[in-house]
Design a protein that fits this description.
Elements: E1 9-12, E2 15-18, H1 22-25, E3 30-34, E4 47-51, H2 67-82, H3 88-116, H4 121-141, E5 150-151, E6 154-155, H5 163-185, H6 189-195, H7 203-208, H8 214-217, H9 225-228, H10 249-273, E7 292-300, E8 303-311, E9 320-324, H11 326-332, H12 334-338, H13 343-352, H14 357-361
Antiparallel strand pairs: 1-2, 3-4, 5-6, 7-8, 8-9
Helix pairs in contact: 2-3, 3-4, 3-10, 3-13, 4-5, 5-10
Length: 362
């Protein structure tokens, strides 16, 4: 830490603002879970690592189920710090990728949530549709899970020939598929018995624990950064923010189901109105952002994801990168929701939170 520059100021609209140095803030070790890696042999070993900082080379690994959002948020932080303008076409592509990824992530959640309750059919249906989205991602960037597709200033490559037509086919195909999921679960007596009135997280408690995303909206609070603090080109699309009324497990289920409909609606509009033009602002292959700090937040699948970066102005790597992930706060509220319930209910309540563990450890 001793090589930190002496001129510790960031420059913004208000002039010089002192940066937070290690000497001022102090550092402390933190514990990270590693493993189990595999359900047999060495995989049952769980390691607890005591860390004093770490380098994250790929933001995709923070939330591997919603990697597009991780890419997007970090790029926005760099763009804010370096004052990089993003071409309009690239913004549309980002929104399309984000919302397709939101659907794909919710499909994994819905399929596994139903599986935890003993319903196998929804799992098969959900993964059927998810494969179609992954085919679109692979068609665009060559990857199916950790995409590394977005870049500071835009995206790495333009949409390939045939993408828009195939994406439109998927949007049309997907609309009635959500009806199929609901036909199996929404009014199913067994499903209702396991979810209605179970695992209540009231609005005040959710706010006290900084819960965000679908878990917060299930309490009845209509809070979504795409509406409250619009970023990218979200303000150009019409979509609703689903909310719950009872703050229970069933509400968390139905909010995500409705979010898939709204995400599909956004993708449909973006595909119809996407403009021609550049897909990336020209920057040096390796560039050094100016000295300063920046923080941005986006509405990821699991809630608010924030990126805070500090630049020394002399290196290509940030001096500090701090992440605010939704799963960390959402999981913290679990004891409040499970107190007094049975173990079988705990499985359902925990599953309803849609927690991704790397998103907790960051």
């Amino acid at each position: 830490m001793s090589d930190y520059p002496k001129n510790n100021f960031s420059y913004g609209p208000g002039g010089q603002v002192p940066l937070l140095t290690a000497e001022k803030v102090g550092t402390e070790e933190f514990i990270v879970n590693m493993g189990p890696q595999h359900p047999s042999t060495h995989g049952v070993c769980r390691l607890l690592l005591k860390m004093d900082g770490e380098v994250i080379p790929y933001t995709d690994r923070i939330d591997y189920v919603s990697a597009m959002f991780c890419n997007h948020g970090f790029c926005m932080a760099v763009e804010k710090l370096a004052e990089i303008e993003v071409p309009e076409r690239a913004e549309y592509i980002r929104v399309i990728m984000d919302e397709l990824n939101r659907i794909a992530s919710h499909l994994i959640w819905l399929g596994t949530f139903a599986l935890d309750l003993g319903a196998i059919t929804p799992f098969l249906y959900c993964f059927r549709e998810r494969e179609m989205i992954l085919d679109l991602f692979e068609m665009t960037c060559g990857q199916r899970m950790t995409f590394n597709y977005m870049r500071a200033g835009g995206v790495s490559r333009d949409l390939p020939e045939g993408f828009i037509s195939k994406a439109k086919e998927f949007v049309k195909y997907f609309k009635p598929r959500v009806d199929e999921y609901e036909a199996i679960l929404t009014e199913n007596p067994i499903f209702l018995g396991r979810t209605k009135g179970v695992g209540i997280l009231d609005k005040k408690t959710a706010i006290d624990y900084s819960v965000t995303g679908p878990n917060l909206r299930a309490t009845g609070l209509k809070w979504d950064l795409r509406k409250e603090e619009p970023y990218s080109v979200y303000d150009r699309f019409e979509f609703d923010i689903p909310t719950g009324t009872k703050s229970d497990t069933w509400d968390r289920y139905i909010v995500r189901v409705q979010e898939m409909r709204q995400a599909n609606r956004i993708v449909e509009q973006a595909l119809e109105s996407i403009p021609e033009g550049e897909i990336k602002t020209k920057t040096k292959p390796v560039f050094k952002p100016p000295q300063g700090e920046a923080y941005v937040r986006i509405e990821s699948t699991r809630g608010e994801m924030g990126f805070y970066i500090v630049s020394e102005g002399e290196k290509t790597m940030p001096y500090r990168a701090k992440l605010r992930t939704a799963s960390f706060s959402n999981l913290a509220a679990l004891p409040e929701m499970t107190r007094g319930w049975k173990i079988a209910d705990l499985v359902v309540i925990f599953a309803s939170l849609d927690v991704i563990m790397p998103d907790v450890d960051r």
